[in-house]
Amino acid sequence: xxxxxxxxxxxxxxxxxxxxxxxxxxxxxxxxxxxxxxxxxxxxxxxxxxxxxxxxxxxxxxxxxxxxxxxxxxxxxxxxxxxxxxxxxxxxxxxxxxxxxxxxxxxxxxxxxxxxxxxxxxxxxxxxxxxxxxxxxxxxxxxxxxxxxxxxxxxxxxxxxxxxxxxxxxxxxxxxxx
Amino acid sequence: xxxxxxxxxxxxxxxxxxxxxxxxxxxxxxxxxxxxxxxxxxxxxxxxxxxxxxxxxxxxxxxxxxxxxxxxxxxxxxxxxxxxxxxxxxxxxxxxxxxxxxxxxxxxxxxxxxxxxxxxxxxxxxxxxxxxxxxxxxxxxxxxxxxxxxxxxxxxxxxxxxxxxxxxxxxxxxxxxx
DNA sequence: CATCAATTTCTGTACTTACAGAAATATTCG
DNA sequence: CGAATATTTCTGTAAGTACAGAAATTGATG
Lengths: 178, 178
Known about the structure:
2 copies of one chain form a homodimer. Chain A has helices spanning 5-20, 25-37, 43-50, 54-66, 89-116, 126-151, 154-160, 165-168; strands spanning 41-42, 70-73, 82-85. Chain A is mainly alpha-helical. The first copy, chain A, folds into 2 domains: 5-85, Winged helix-like DNA-binding domain superfamily/Winged helix DNA-binding domain (Arc Repressor Mutant, subunit A), CATH 1.10.10; 89-171, no CATH class. In chain A, strand 2 and strand 3 (82-85) form a beta hairpin. Chains A and B meet through helix 1, helix 2, helix 5 and helix 6 of A and helix 1, helix 2, helix 5 and helix 6 of B. The structure holds a DNA duplex.
């Protein structure tokens, strides 16, 4: 597939953003490509469109699947795997937040909980103890709240957040549960 | 300074987290150290405590200052710079979100706006156009809302978010404006 | 204003991560 | 079940990033 200029720039920018947030550039690019394409694509087409090796696509797709951002579909009369992503921004956002949470936040909470139930904690400076406790509590509050928010339909959420109705119509497509 | 075991593990974990979010490991470690220490430290002490080169501390501190996470203070009768960070989790969170916003979100909004005011956009597939518009709108809604939230005092925010009062007391120290 | 301490910038090296291409494996179809 | 095609895993190289140590600069003090 030959990319049109704006799509190409969108995809490149997305790759840049990915890098800055700890996401492999190619992974981010592939996701952006599938997002803009809005249709299932097979590995070879992805590779040639982005100018990367097919093996790289394979690895990156696996990564995207582990985030549940991409699913495999099959087209009648074609034995190759085709890959697609949701075109719903809100759903994508939700999946990314959930992925980050599982990979980084939850383990961090475990580590901090470990510290608090460790008798050695008493040896630390009073202030440090206090701050470790506060850090844990902060993270827990934030994740609890974000869990609740992500469970809502976007329209409901928009209302809750007190954002004007004119904007919320963007999300008319709806997605997610509840 | 000799780190006590739990502080050390906290700092190392923070460094790991930093890496995963696109923040230099040493930068994250230094910040964690200053956070737990809760007092100003000078470059040499930071370097020896963390086992990194002094030059590395210099660069990292500059980075942290550009995020407004660390400020320089001077102690009477000591010509060396000393560095400290806030011990208020909420304030730190606010500064990090604001930094990310300025560095990554705002430029992305500019790029997307550029696409929308570019006549070439008409050449793109209808669906792609639509999705570019939706992406921009989504990001704008999110940042508008986060701006509003971050301007609130933590207690007010907690109430808004409907989180029980028992938790919000963690943030009694207060910070930020409004 | 010369000396000394502190700090920053520069430079080469080490480490890490990304990735292409090759090889191996799996899958589909006749 | 064998051939053809698709996919994944492996491996070496390349690119990028982090960092120590050296050199240069800044700035304070007598």
